[in-house]
């Protein structure tokens, strides 16, 4: 699943797709049927990218993408509106090492509702581009010198930069003529 550019906005329900960026924030489009547009100002809104969200675990945090993959493989995915006990049972199946004291029922409802929103999207069904291995291992042959290991460069990914419009330089203006005050006669 490819969740690049999908964000959750604090204070706004649902999920949003980042369309572009301006100098104050991002232009977002909702993933629901209304396709509502929103300009999220970075100084006032908090954005969380879905591919970077993690769930508290006992040993290590669990990536949300891993939980979505396990939910996709699960047989019976409950609705987000079922009671907390049933959600906890389901969450114990798909993320057995999550920290039950730190992961609340509201968090589980949010994850399940996000899954139901994303499961029919085409980008959710596609696989992420497989990265080439960084190191190619070569087995040594008896009686020969040790093999040289070739290192491949990692693919470079950059986020689009915001285009800011610079104000045009002001033309030099002529100083205004200063009139001398008249003397009273």
From TrEMBL:
> InterPro entries from the xrefs?
BVU_3817-like_C_sf (IPR049281), BVU_3817_N_sf (IPR049282), DUF5606 (IPR041218), DUF6852 (IPR049280)
* Record region (Disordered): 156-185
DUF6852 domain sequence ranges: 53-118
Domain (DUF5606): give its ranges: 3-50
Renumbered to this chain, the Low complexity biased-composition regions fall at 156-176
Q: What is this protein called?
A: Uncharacterized protein
Species annotation: Mucilaginibacter mallensis
Taxonomic lineage of the native organism = Bacteria, Pseudomonadati, Bacteroidota, Sphingobacteriia, Sphingobacteriales
